[in-house]
Structure formats: C-alpha cells, structure tokens
Amino acid sequence: MSHISIIGGHGTVALHLTRILTAHDDNGVTGVVRNPDHQEDLAKAGAKMAVVDLENDTAETLAGAIAGSDAVVFAAGSGPGSGAERKWTVDRDGAVKLVEACRIADVNRYVMVSSMGTDDPPEGDEVFAQYLRAKAEADQALMDSDLAWTVVRPGGLTDDEPAGTIALDRHVDRGEIPRADVAAVLAAVLATPAMAGRVVEVVSGETPVADAISSHIS
C-alpha cells in the first residue's frame, strides 16, 4: 500500500486527486490543511487529515505530518484573493519548507503543482507577476534538491467537467484545463517513476492522460 500526502489538501485539485487515489485500495491519502474544520470534506473524499500552518509551523512539524508517506504533492496556494505577500510566504516559502520536511521525514518523491508562465515570469509589482515569480523560485528550489521531483505546470484552471484528454510536454501552447484533469495528470505522474526529474506543461487536448504520460517518457 502506498501513501500520499497532499499539502493544501482541501483545494479543488487536491480533493479531485484524493478521490482518484482513494478509489484504488492500494492508496492512502493524508490531506495536510491549515483549517481543522475541513475534516468532514477530507473524510468524504477518503483522506485522513493533518493540521499544519504552512506559513508559521516549522519544517519539523510538517515532517511529522508527512512521515511514512511514499510521496508528497504540493497543491497549496495563497488563493486568488490574497495579496502579494502571501504569494511568497505560501507559494514559495511553503513549497521550500516541504523540501526540507521531506529530507527530515525521509520522503523522496515530491510532485509540485506549479503554473504555466513560470519559465519566464514577468517583472513588476502586479500580484499575478509576483505569484509567477514566487512559483518559479519554488520550482527552482525543488529542482535544485536531491529529491525525486516532478513539476507539473497547468494552464488556466477551470471547473469544467473532466475530458480525460490533454496536451502534455515540456512546452505546450497556452490554454485551459479542468481542475479534475489536472488531478488525473498528478495521479498518473505519481504512478510513473520515470516522470521524476521532469518539468511538464499541460492543457486540455486530444490525448488520453495515460497515453500522454507514456509518450512523454518514451
């Protein structure tokens, strides 16, 4: 049985991923969240809950939450309504803290939910520009680590019904993708050890998820 810890476990992508993983008897999931009131939602999706304040708790505390995991997924985010400061304290610093927590807890596999636009993030003080720079720095910190990492950079996220078909490569044309399809990609990445050490962009397309992953690593 493998066990996956999802940081930001109450997010929409994270809950979709939890339902995919727990639909198979060989996967257990811990949703790492800040708000203990999310326990019912996590339980309905099939996850256990660990409460960690990603901004204020230590890497050691986070390590305790993920201990025993076979992999972690960083799906936390400051959210669209937050100011620029939290792009750095959550989207960058939280992701970097998880790298350290993985070292402490001896968890080697780390999958990052990033964003298209982080290859060459814009300058300026606009909040979205700072978000992309924060994500870019988080991605680089993970890529500089000795962990078995994968960085997944989706296009614009929608709440449309999943199509199950995507376009995935190191670079793809800009586009949108349902959050449920992002979750399916993350599940496939977790199940494919050869995806370690890769950065991929993903949007909606014509190729079934499993085929897109297989083609990328072949």
Summary of the model, kept short:
With 218 residues, the chain is of the alpha/beta class. The chain is 39% helix and 24% strand.
Describe this structure in words.
The longest helix has 22 residues, at 84-105. The chain is globular and about 40 Å long. The chain has 218 residues and is of the alpha/beta class. The chain has helices spanning 12-22, 39-45, 59-66, 84-105, 127-143, 179-190, 209-217; strands spanning 2-7, 27-33, 48-51, 71-74, 109-113, 148-154, 156-158, 165-169, 176-178, 198-204, 207-208. It is 39% helix and 24% strand.
Number of strands: 11
- Through-space gap between termini: 27 Å
The value of Rg in angstroms is: 16 Å
Low-confidence stretches: none
- SSE order, one letter for each helix or strand: EHEHEHEHEHEEEEHEEH
Helix proportion range:
25-40%
Mean pLDDT: 95
Principal-axis shape equals globular
**Total DSSP helices:** 7
| Strand order, sheet with most strands | 3-2-1-4-5-6-10-8-11
**Could you describe the largest sheet, including whether it forms a barrel?**
9 strands, mixed
Structural class: alpha/beta
Q: Strand fraction band?
A: 15-25%
